[in-house]
Amino acid sequence: MAGFDGHLKVAIVVGALFTAYTLPKLIAHGVLMTLEHRILYLVLAFGGVVVFGVLLDIDVWSSIPRRLFGKGILAVATVAPLYFLITEPARLYGIGSLAATILSIGSVSTEVIGAVTLLVLGLGIAKTIGFGLDELTDHRGLIHSKEFVIGCGLIAFLGLWQWGELPTLAAIPVAVAVTLGGIVHLSVDAVS
Fold first, then answer.
1. Rounded percentage of the chain residues whose pLDDT exceeds 70
2. Which partner from 26, 62, 150, 191 sits 20 to 30 angstroms from 119, CA to CA?
3. Residue 140's CB: how many other CB atoms inside 10 A?
């Protein structure tokens, strides 16, 4: 079975070939007119192949993608209360007021209570997501299916289309890149 390095190397090569093939065609057809669109396309298309080329092993509890995902969720859960405390204290005030009322705490700042409540909820959600991945997936189960890979490509297209920063005709190859990354992963698994 190929490990993280094997999946990553193949995904980088396929991602480079895919973007080298599609970028000039999109430029020639007038789809990517600005330098910003070209750079955004390169990042999204190449990144789509590479990220999805290794991401499918998120269903293995000891894999590098799974460990990074867990660290990312914990980072977001930890930083979000501080972010809201600085940028939107009114949101934390509402959460804190509710928690202070429920817990009958009146001497502590409601913003602080809101931040602590959000932190505890965020860490609880992060832990639940980890358990959910363990319970809902098993290695080479749903996440390692053609249907999941195609669904991710479709979601990528719909997300880019809704976002609107990239022309629709450029969003299609990015969705193909995401799907291609998943196919690369499944192919490497099949031959190893």
1. 92
2. 62
3. 15
Instruction: Supply the DSSP string of 3-23, one letter for each residue.
Output: -HHHHHHHHHHHHHHHHHHHH
* pLDDT per position as a tens digit, 35-88: 999 999 999 999 999 999 998 877 776 778 877 877 877 787 788 888 877 888
Residue 120 main-chain phi, psi, to 5 deg: -65, -45
The 3-state DSSP composition of the chain as helix, strand, coil percent (nearest 5) reads 85, 0, 15
CB 119 within 8 A of CB 96: no
Helix (H, G, I), strand (E, B) or coil at 106: coil
Question: Which tokens hold the place of 7?
Answer: 């999946």
Count the Cβ atoms, other than its own, within 10 Å of residue 20: 11
Instruction: Report the greatest alpha carbon distance in the chain.
Output: 66
**Alpha-carbon span 67 to 181, nearest angstrom:** 20
Examine the pLDDT at 141 and tell me if it is beyond 70.
Answer: no
